[in-house]
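Is this the right way to post structure tokens for a design question? Let me know if I should format differently. Anyway, here goes:
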């Protein structure tokens, strides 16, 4: 993955985080009441937690982190506190710190006696942080699980598709890329969409779906006409499509010629063996082999007709002479 693409991908993930925080949040009192009833609550740090949760709901991560870190410094070990610190650490651009908080949050969320939405959100959030840290093998199971049970989103489906493509499973990658592009992308930065269109086009090209690849490249270049990689890929696919069109024209022309020959019924000279076949009935053909007892070129003898008359030309057969009687024994 190139440095430029990594930068753009980071912007994409930040956009996903922004959408996460900007989404209609649970009322501050709802999370705080849950924390007091089922979390690691204490009078020593409850005020810090309440301040931090309120700042988080206002999308003020800087203030939220300050208050929640004070709660942690006072020995608070709460799942919701860790989770909000992890999300804000990502927004602040410190993914490795976020990973530490997500790891703690995952452990504590698994021990809650009552279900909380963060128990599903943790899969996408933790997987996203691992993804940003380029720990792709570790990120994969979390993000795949998130795609199955979490909230559908452009960023989530794109990351899953990206990881499948990295594993060489182009078919699965295309499936998730399509899901990603089916989500609302109206708030995504244009430069990010251009990169996504181009990267998705690559997967379609590998699947030899050149038509879809060209559609995506057209959208990418409409946003960024100077994208060198997208222009090169478009040129390559154009050459392939031109070759395919030429082959189709050749096959079509060959098919027309074959059809015309069949329609006119053109016949070829008979093979030499045909001359040796018996003549048709009624044809006069001279027998090259004379019958026995005749000279070459003479007609065969004929048997006289009844009454001793000869009805045809040629030599008449003579009757055989009787044999002499056998001698007596006297």
């Amino acid at each position: 993955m190139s440095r430029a693409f990594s930068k753009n991908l980071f912007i994409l993930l930040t956009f996903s985080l922004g959408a996460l925080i900007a989404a209609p949040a649970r009322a501050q009192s709802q999370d705080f009441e849950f924390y007091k009833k089922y979390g690691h609550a204490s009078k020593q740090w409850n005020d810090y937690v309440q301040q931090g949760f309120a700042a988080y709901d206002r999308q003020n991560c800087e203030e939220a982190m300050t208050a929640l870190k004070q709660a942690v410094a006072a020995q608070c070990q709460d799942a919701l506190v860790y989770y909000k610190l992890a999300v804000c650490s990502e927004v602040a651009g410190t993914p490795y710190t976020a990973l530490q908080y997500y790891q703690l949050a995952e452990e504590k969320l698994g021990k809650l006696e009552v279900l909380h939405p963060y128990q599903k959100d943790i899969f996408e959030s933790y997987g996203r942080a691992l993804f940003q840290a380029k720990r792709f093998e570790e990120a994969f199971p979390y993000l795949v699980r998130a795609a199955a049970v979490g909230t559908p989103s452009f960023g989530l489906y794109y990351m899953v598709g990206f990881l499948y493509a990295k594993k060489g499973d182009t078919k699965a990658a295309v499936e998730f890329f399509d899901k990603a592009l089916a989500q609302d992308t109206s708030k995504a930065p244009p430069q990010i969409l251009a990169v996504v269109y181009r990267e998705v086009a690559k997967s379609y090209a590998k699947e030899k779906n050149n038509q879809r690849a060209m559609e995506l490249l057209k959208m990418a270049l409409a946003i960024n006409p100077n994208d060198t990689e997208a222009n090169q890929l478009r040129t390559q696919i154009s050459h392939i499509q031109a070759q395919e069109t030429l082959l189709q024209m050749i096959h079509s022309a060959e098919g027309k010629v074959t059809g015309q020959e069949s329609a006119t019924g053109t016949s070829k000279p008979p093979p030499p063996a045909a001359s040796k076949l018996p003549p048709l009935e009624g044809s006069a053909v001279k027998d090259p082999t004379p019958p026995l007892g005749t000279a070459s070129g003479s007609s065969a003898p004929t048997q006289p007709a009844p009454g001793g008359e000869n009805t045809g030309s040629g030599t008449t057969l003579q009757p055989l002479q009787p044999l002499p009687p056998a001698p007596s024994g006297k």
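Format looks fine. Someone answered above. Worth noting: The chain has 13 helices and no strands. The two ends are 134 Å apart (CA to CA).
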